Amino acid sequence: MKGRSFVRKALLFVLVLSMITSVTGATLANGNQTITMAMVAAWDNLIPFDTTSSYSDVVLDLIFDKLVYLKQNGTYEPRLATAWEMSEDNTVLTVTLNENAKWHDGEPVTAHDVVFSMQIYSSPTVAAVRQNNVSPFAGFAETDDSIQVRALDDHTVEFTLAQPTNIDFLFFTKLRDIYIMPKHLLGDLPLESIRESDYWRSPIGSGPAIYQSQISGERMEFKANKDYHVKSPSWDRFVLRVVATPNLLSGLMNNEIDVLAGNIAALQLSDWDMAQRQSNLVTESTPTVGYQYMAINTSKEYLTPGVRQAINMAINREAIVQGLLRGQGEAAFGPFSKDHLYYNDVVNVGFNPEEAKKILAEEGWDSSRELIFSVPTGNTVREMSAVIIQQNLLEIGIKTRIVSADFATHLNRVRESNYDLGLIGSGGSPDPSEAVINFKPDHINNFAQLSDWSIYNTGSAGEQAFSFEDRKEHYDKYQELLVEQVPFSFLYFANNLFAHNTRVGNIVDSEDYSQLNRDVWNWTIVK
Amino acid sequence: MLKFVGKRLLIAIPTFIGITILVYVLSSLAPGTPLEMIFSDPHATAEQMEVLRQRYGLDQPVVVQYFNWLKQLLSGNLGISYRTGNLVWVDIAERVGPTLLLTFSSLTFSLLVALPLGIISAYRPYSIWDYISSALSFVGAAMPNFFAGLVFVYLFSVKLNIFPSGGMYDSSGTRSLGMLLHHLILPMLVLSIQQVGSLIRQTRGSMLEVQQEDYIRTARSKGLFESVILFRHALQNAFIPIVTRIGLMIPFLFGGAVVTEQIFAWPGLGSLMVLAINSRDYPVIMGITVFIAAAVLVGNIVIDLIYCLLDPKIRYE
To answer: Which of residues 150-179 of A touch B (CB under 8 A)?
Structure first.
């Protein structure tokens, strides 16, 4: 009896404590017009040209504007740009800017801001981390202002390309991460010390949200840019919070979070059934263009093209999709999913361990050899898929030793060629050129250590092809080469397990999150 | 006393330098550099990596890098974070407040709960209170932080909906002390749970041992009140091993806070350390190491001084 009374008293104490602190906390003040979005890790900095973090991109996409809004179906819509036109010879892109666009301090956004931003990205003095995003333009990185981008008038910009280039490739692969910065606030700063400006601690942009404050690593708060030129947001405030993955569902269930930041804050599979049962949540399992693959070290003489082909057809991808992803995904045989415009069914080698064994026998595979299988930690499904792959390979007579490490260690190991097989992921893209750079023999992300240029040359030729038919021809050939040479064995496309609270509406483009842009100006608060 | 403090401080200096060497070398020996993460982007080139490698001095031998860092430290500069581009001390200063709030509230809570329970357990051994506190202490000491965190979130946040599942404030736009405390309670309880467990056992054991001593029997035979015997004679003597235990808790609290801060998105040094390690941000790793090492070394000296106050037999020569 005494014990029960103690437990009762303890619970009562906790309840009273909760009531006192929550009442004094005034949790409901202003709550109705605020949208809270969650992501699972913090941003690193607010300098658009000096980060490659997807988490920083979430913040930057709210504060700054980009030229266009990218959609997963391969189309794009006006954002800062209202119109764009490529010259007949595909060497000059002319972009018309929205005349109503204003910086958060009320100054107009002009073509000179776009030119200034492109110069910052390209400048050898600045040496931006994202410098290479503007590499297709003539005069790139020769001097601080050599890039051939010029203002024709206050609202028209002309981009001159170094060679004829496909416009979809430009927007999806190169300009996706280019944010427009204000010349009137940054233009007078010396380029060598531009990073040190106080401006970056409280940046003024022209995006849909105006920066207000942050608690480092916990949240960033914004107010709506009611003058946003695409559409005035109907909400008043926007709060971006960092929430640990296991707490995403609990935060949604108790209304602390309104919406997840898409593929960088997806629900765990183990939470998915429970999420679907919640009456206050809208859930959506969205196919994405992002994929996982296993890089195969082509520089190892024992991993011949034949052996790589055998490995590729020995992997039971359906077992991974059904067993680990519980059907929330699709088997990947190449960088494009089956409903991608550029998919070529030639890549579909199926699951054929018998054929794989035959090929291995022909190649004279030494079954006593053990391959080093490097697996990065941090993605549970990917880690577990390594065990299935290990078992699949053992069944055809290939022994592997799984070596797990954090991503930085893993990446170093793969880049330095200290591995045989290694798991990696990619965000993918609607544009077929996305993975081509990984097959460039002298590139740092040539994970497969290819020395043969044929895959890269075929894929990059598609960047200079202009009709769908012409591009399709290049990328069909590219996929044929991938399945012949097997530098990567593609594994699966995992769906984005997305959820948002019913109080927030008009979130119709969750699938576009994979392009690191969100049309928050269309989001509404329903109740 | 001053001589003792001076001596301890002198011993602390090589210990501190030893810690920094160890952490610097271990960090540098781990495969991968900050450049791997900065240039995980597919557009990056080897030339860009080389430019940054030179800018950060990562092309120098580890020994040279360490001495450059030490020279910088001695001039009061912890360097610049590779990840954020901020001065390291700015990044640490932003995070130190939440960590101190969490760890010291947890330490206070642990003492407030564990000491009375431990004393009662020892004073009335094998009573219902002893069984309850023993059960609590075993469960607490055996429960890992990450597990306790998830259980607490499920219970108090999802099921009972009385505490938030993470962060320091809600999204209302107002920030009050009450709101902060409301968000602090769950991470503080989780961080305290293991400390409470081990501290109850330590207090109970020490008190039981002291109660067998001759001077306690003498005090009783003199007819002193039980409260005087308990608090003046027994507790003061039992406190020495308890204070040692509290001293050992300080580094553990900072260590435990790494996991707790991650679970509850509490923006302290622990979560900053995880970010820094994942991105191989050496200046931040070293900056946090300097801070924690200094806190622990100073904490140990303070504990030594408390011994002197508790037991007049202890003299510092």
So the answer is: 174
**Total of domains in chain B:** 2
Which ranges in A331-371 belong to alpha helices (H)? Answer: 353-363
User: A23 — contact with chain B (CB < 8 Å)?
Assistant: yes
For B9, the domain range is 2-74
Choosing from A149, A172, A199, the residue where a domain stops is A199
- The whole domain housing A366 covers 291-494
Phi, psi of A416 (to 5 degrees): -85, 5
Q: Which residue of B has its CA nearest to A15?
A: B162
B16 and B122 housed in the same domain:
no
**Could you tell me the CATH number of the domain that includes residue A348?**
3.10.105.10
Give the end of a domain, one of A164, A199, A234.
Answer: A199
Q: Which residues in chain B are closer than 8 Å to A463, comparing Cβ atoms?
A: none
Give one DSSP letter per residue of A266-279, joined into a string: PPPHHHHHHHHT-T
Q: Is there a domain that residue B90 lies in? A: no
Does A256 contact B167 at a Cβ distance shorter than 8 Å? yes
Q: How many CB atoms lie within 10 A of CB A90?
A: 17
A21/B181 CB distance under 8 A: yes
**What are the φ and ψ backbone dihedral angles of A206, each rounded to 5 degrees?**
-130, 20
Same domain, B155 and B302: yes
How many alpha carbons fall within 13 Å on the CB side of residue A140? 16
Q: A-chain residues within 8 Å CB-CB of B85?
A: 45, 47, 50, 195, 200
Q: Quick check: A320 pLDDT over 90?
A: yes
Min distance B158 CA to chain A CA atoms (Å): 6
HSE of A397, CA atoms in CB hemisphere, 13 A: 17
Is A31 touching B (CB cutoff 8 A)?
A: yes
Using a CB-CB cut-off of 8 Å, the residues of chain A touching B49 are 444
State the complex-level ipTM.
0.81
Q: Which residue has the tokens 């065990």?
A: A387
Q: How far is A80 from chain B (nearest CA, A)?
A: 24
- A110 and A235 in a single domain? The answer is no
How far is the C-alpha of A424 from the C-alpha of A411, rounded, in Å? 9
Q: Is B244 an interface residue toward A (CB < 8 Å)?
A: no
B38, B167, B169: residue with CB nearest A129: B38
Q: Tell me, yes or no, whether A354 lies in a domain.
A: yes
Q: Does B227 touch chain A (CB under 8 A)?
A: no
Q: Which of residues 268-287 of B touch A (CB under 8 A)?
A: 271-272, 275, 277-280
Does B81 map to a domain?
no
pLDDT band of residue B185 (cuts 50, 70, 90) is: very high
Specify the DSSP element, H or E, that contains A240: strand A237-242
What is the arithmetic mean of pLDDT over A343-361? Answer: 95
Q: Do B91 and A135 touch (CB under 8 A)?
A: no
CATH assignment of the domain containing A118? 3.90.76.10
Give B272's contacts in chain A (Cβ within 8 Å): 216-217
Cross-chain Cβ contact B179/A415 below 8 Å: no
Cβ–Cβ < 8 Å for A205, A64: yes
Express each pLDDT in A98-125 by its tens digit.
999 999 999 999 999 999 999 999 999 9
Among the three residues B74, B109, B136, which one is the final residue of a domain in this structure?
Answer: B74
- For residues A487 and A448, the answer to whether their CB atoms sit within 8 Å is yes
Q: In this predicted structure, which of B75-84, B184-193, B307-316 has the lowest mean pLDDT?
A: B307-316
Residue A425 Cα distances to A76, A157, A278, A292, A342, angstroms = 25, 36, 31, 4, 20
